[in-house]
Amino acid sequence: MKRILALALAVLMLVGALSLTACQTTDSEGWEKDADGNIIIKIGGIGPLTGDYASYGVSVKNGATIAVEEINAANPIPGVKFELLFQDSEGDGTKAVSAFGKLVDDGMDISLGGVLSGETKEIVTASVESGMLLLTPTASALNCIGEANAFRVCFNDPQQGEVAAQQIKNYGLATKIALFYDNGSDYSIGNINTFKEKAAELGLEIVTDQTYSETSNTDFSTQITAIKNSGAELVFMPIYYNDAAKFLRQARTAELDVVYFGVDGLDGVIAECGEANKADCEDVILMTPFYADSEQDVIKNFVDTYKTAHNAIPDQFAADGYDAIYVIVEALKQAGYTTGERLEGVTTEGFNAALIGAMTNITVTGATGTMKWTANGETSKNPLVLQIKDGKYVEYKAE
Q: What average pLDDT does range 173-180 have in this prediction?
């Protein structure tokens, strides 16, 4: 019996040691180090790298990768280097949770959560036990960061819906509004609910409410006919770019002559329409915090680097991924981890608590604007109103 108890105790001690090592923050021996003795902080991201929403995940990963490379070269925290780990969720919440567990096993110290809202909601639940900082670049559903360890770089959906109604009013774009959205999407619903409330307050009339299901989104003829018959002057479409491209193609063919207005999920619709069908996107208006043709240095430098690395213009999702890494660096410095030596001997719990606490005390100017955070994880920054002209985004100018 003594031998059995001794063996059991040894196994428990080994499991505990392995768990602490995976977190990398137990003591001076807990951090993984490179050949030069720099502490390696591992940042884990999860998102669709394959499947229908792969554009979002690839963009976030590419933007975050560029930031990590820049930061490691600039060495803002002497004695610390960063490593990005990224797992493909295929846009599936269950796979995202498994990916989170894999990242923990691989030594993740800070989480970027998920790219999409649904998967992030699942990941946040899984992350509570770890206690680590979770900073999602792009998950925008209101309820997907409802824990004390979770923050986001992007706007939440209700913020966008409310601001969209206000901008439509401010620019005098229309008074009769048609709604078109995915009734199974947290992203769409979050935008629509606050849009309706704000529209009523501003005297905008909702003349038709048209929905579709993601599982049957290939034929929108019924919804388009209803919109044409409603007398709508504008379609508010808080949907993702892939569905938007299908809808625009069919709506243009049906000669639906309205203003098309969306939010940040439309970013990517130009590429989805393609050169052959770029007329489908012409004059579409959207709100986004990122404008690739901006003259601001931080944006120009990011865009130039992205073009060189990927032979493409970065979208808002890439910019959010890029900003997220810089936010993490500022949080580390605010928490007092200004050198690698400051991290020696720090416990997992102490590291996590300091980093989470720092988030509400930093201001970061990035590619998507100047950001601050509240204790509930939300950021504040100003959106841009852009319009697509000849296959490019330009700042919207009222006619």
A: 98
